[in-house]
Write a structure and sequence with these properties.
With 255 residues, the protein is an alpha+beta fold. It has helices spanning 19-38, 55-94, 176-181; strands spanning 98-101, 107-118, 121-128, 133-138, 158-160, 170-172, 186-187, 193-195, 203-214, 219-234, 236-237, 251-254.
Length: 255
């Protein structure tokens, strides 16, 4: 009797993608992956992360570092404002001074010193802003008026190279005497007032006459006086900002 053999199915074989198909699939997946990544929101690490810090943490650290500097700047600005106020107050305060007037109301200058300790004389040191010179006055009602003229207490003489007190007048340099009048108005006669300047420097000259005002006779006196190679300053005549003679008693006003 013949045998019947059941036919058997051939074993399955795995289908594999071709190389071209793999490349095509990869090219499609790459854009999709990038799109997914791009649409994913970026998140910073938690604030308690010891390595990474958030933007807010960085900003807070910057603000903390700048705080002392900003405070110092504000303090300096406040100090500058206070100093400006103090300067303004000082300028307002120093705008007032004790001014000196004669009996007719002429303003003579600013009182610097009032000295009544020299015998029966009272001296007043007055600074003239117009002349930029100090003026030494005396109050004649206390006597000795005949040794001065027109209220001026530092009447002086002048030296000349000529023999008749003509030409350029000079003030001889004389140590402490020079220092005492270097910044003063120098009365010479009731009509002539001089000054000299250290900035010009002295000259070495030979003088042959001296001239001065005689208060007893109210006359100019010239005498022969020869000095060789003396150091002297040239005197310059100035115009007074007030008229003479100065009328007394003097008046003092704080203005």
């Amino acid at each position: 009797m013949p045998r019947y053999t059941v036919p058997q199915r051939a074993p399955r074989q795995r289908r594999s993608l071709s190389r071209r198909a793999k490349i095509l699939a990869a090219s499609l997946l790459l854009p999709i992956s990038l799109l997914v990544i791009a649409r994913t929101p970026v998140q910073a690490a938690p604030s308690n992360n010891p390595i990474f810090a958030t933007i807010q943490d960085v900003q807070n650290a910057i603000n903390a570092a700048l705080a002392p500097i900003q405070s110092a700047i504000a303090s300096l600005q406040t100090q500058q404002a206070n100093q400006a106020t103090q300067i303004s107050n000082l300028q307002s305060a120093t705008s007032k001074s004790l001014k000196v007037y004669d009996a007719n109301g002429q303003e003579l200058g600013i009182l610097v010193n009032h000295d009544s300790r020299t015998g029966n004389l009272i001296y007043d040191d007055v600074y003239s802003p117009t002349l930029n010179r100090f003026i030494l006055l005396y109050e004649q009602s206390f006597g000795f008026a005949n040794i001065f003229f027109d209220g001026f207490a530092n009447v002086t003489s002048a030296s000349y190279q000529s023999s008749d007190c003509t030409g350029t007048p000079y003030q001889l340099e004389a140590g402490e005497f020079h220092n005492s009048i270097a910044h003063d108005l120098i009365p010479f006669t009731p009509q002539i007032y001089y000054e000299f300047s250290d900035s010009e420097g002295p000259s070495s000259i030979t003088t042959n006459s001296d001239g001065s005002w005689n208060t007893a006779t109210n006359q100019f006196v010239c005498i022969s006086q020869t000095r060789t190679d003396v150091t002297a300053y040239e005197l310059h005549q100035v115009n007074l900002p007030f008229s003479t003679p100065i009328s007394e008693p003097l008046q003092f006003k704080y203005q």
